[in-house]
Amino acid sequence: MTPVADAPLAVPLSGTIPPAGPVRFVDRGGLFGLLVKNAVLTFLTVGIYRFWARAALRRYWWGSIVIAGDPLEYTGTGLELFVGFLMFLGIMLPFGLVYGLTALLAASNPLTGGLLRLVEAFLFLMLIQIVTFRARRYRLSRTLWRGVRASQGGSSWEYLLLVFKWTLLSVITLGIAVPWARIATTRYLMDRTALGDLEARFDGRGHHLVLPWIAPFVLLYGAFGVFLALNIDQIGKFGPGVVPRGIWLVVLGYVGAAVGFLIYLLIELRYTARHTRFGEVQLGSALSIGGIVLTIFGFLIVAMLVLFGFGLFAGLIIWLTGGGGAHAAGAAAMPSFASVIPAIVIVLIGSLFIGVLRILWVDRSIVRRLCDTMSLTNVDRLDRIGQSTAPIPSAGEGMADAFDIGAF
Description:
transmembrane; Membrane protein; DUF898; 10 strands; globular; transmembrane helix; membrane
């Protein structure tokens, strides 16, 4: 493949999905029932069941992805994820103690306390990078195809140093270096990924992704610049009741930038697939970006309407069970604790409902499109694949699951 032919902007944002190829998504049914079961048990166990729910959902996704006629298999368990979470709590205990000490110090010495808080935030962000790497290694070690296990090599500390270097460069360059940073971290991960004895290689280059990365910034800052130009004579004169001219440009700029960043992530995902191979097996992708963007924004609109409806219902419950009576009697408007509990339950149910809707509407659509638009060349090489000899981690992701790091 040549760099020009594979540049991300060379492929239109929309297109038709080709017929089933060596990779496809098989909708096996039963997803709605699984999601309802997971939501109910997670609610009843105050969140503890989420680890088993995550493992069950992964088994569904993995089993629905068919490569060369055979599905993937996920062998991880909820208990492993739960044990990993307990390990994460043990690691985070010292962080909690330090956080409490810095809070006391900040009260007496704001400058020193503020600097320590910055150090804490930095260390926490670095910890997230280590967790991200280890979570990926765990997921791959629990992924089988035809009984052959995937693996992730490398070191979490090497990955951390790489992320730190590129984060520093991204800050110095005001974000311009981000495409190179993301390509560098992707290369580190993919070049140490394997399926059995087939080692992955990634040959992407950061300059291919510069234009789609910069485009949202140009849109945002351009809209804000026009807004300032329209109101240059009003600077310092704004007050209550004064609506700046062209305020809609700022709103449009932020919305456009959000869409632009989403498009960038999808372009990057498609680009990564096109520049990845496992041994002699080359991946390809004809992912339709426009369809995914419309799917996500359609879901966001419906989700906001649903949450608004649940919020109104919760408010009505509070009013009927306490707040409304207090107003009618001329008493204080503070509702009773007993009247708030049903409203909290309603809001939690609404949140779980939105989670189920997101997986059914967005996640399933994305996984299906990713699979059905992916191609493999030299697929016959998969018939001669050998088993991996990489070590298998024994615990789950812990913090990664607690903070929902990773798509699945």
